[in-house]
Design goal:
With 198 residues, the chain is of the alpha+beta class. It is built from seven helices and five strands; from the N terminus they run ααβααββββααα. It starts with 6 loop residues before the first helix and ends with a helix.
């Protein structure tokens, strides 16, 4: 497989939506969630065999609960269909350090300095989309020291706590003030008390 998932494998894993239009042209608010979930269920049913055949471990297919949560959040923020469903199928790869270059079939989103609303998460995301009818596939690179922070953050902070708490934890982690999972949990509890006391 090399460092990255090959374009051939990504094409095998790629799924064209049965909604019949370019993902950019589908109106999120005008498309019933049940119709979208049915489309994604067809995708889920077909991709498992390919993962087994290609020996791809570390993949995750977004749960129905996560899909519905993201759908509601994207509609509330007036986002589009493609933005909402950019990571239905995802992979996480870990390297000792971030690669310096990436295959040109990926769109690269560099989050090593944080997201627009910084919650401490650091990574590089690679997106592959076979064509405009296909759901994008997301490959997350969690490299170097960011790997452990992202693991702990996803387990204890992400989706549950305010972004400010995640950002503060990352600053302390980057400064070597928080070094272990236990220290992370202890500091999180302290920050929650402060955050709730506002």
């Amino acid at each position: 497989m090399g460092l990255f998932i090959s374009k051939e494998t990504l094409d095998l894993l790629s799924y064209r939506s049965t909604l019949g239009r370019s993902l950019k042209q589908i109106s999120l608010s005008a498309t019933p969630i049940d119709m979208i979930l049915d489309d994604i269920a067809k995708y889920r049913a077909g991709y498992i065999d390919t993962l087994v055949q290609e020996n791809l471990i570390g993949s995750r297919f977004k749960s129905e609960d996560s899909i519905i949560r993201k759908y509601k959040k994207t509609i509330a923020n007036h986002g589009g269909f493609k933005q909402c469903f950019n990571d239905v199928l995802g992979f996480r790869l870990r390297f000792d350090e971030y690669p310096e270059s990436y295959p040109d079939y990926f769109r690269v989103v560099d989050l090593r300095n944080g997201k627009q609303v910084d919650d401490g998460y650091r990574a590089i995301h690679l997106y592959y989309q076979r064509d405009n009818l296909a759901y994008p596939i997301e490959v997350q690179l969690w490299c170097g020291k960011d790997y452990y922070f992202n693991l702990w953050s996803h387990q204890y902070v992400y989706k549950y706590k305010s972004p400010e708490i995640g950002r503060q934890l990352y600053l302390e982690y980057a400064a070597d003030e928080v070094k272990t999972e236990r220290e992370f949990q202890k500091r999180l509890q302290e920050l929650e008390v402060t955050d709730n006391g506002r």
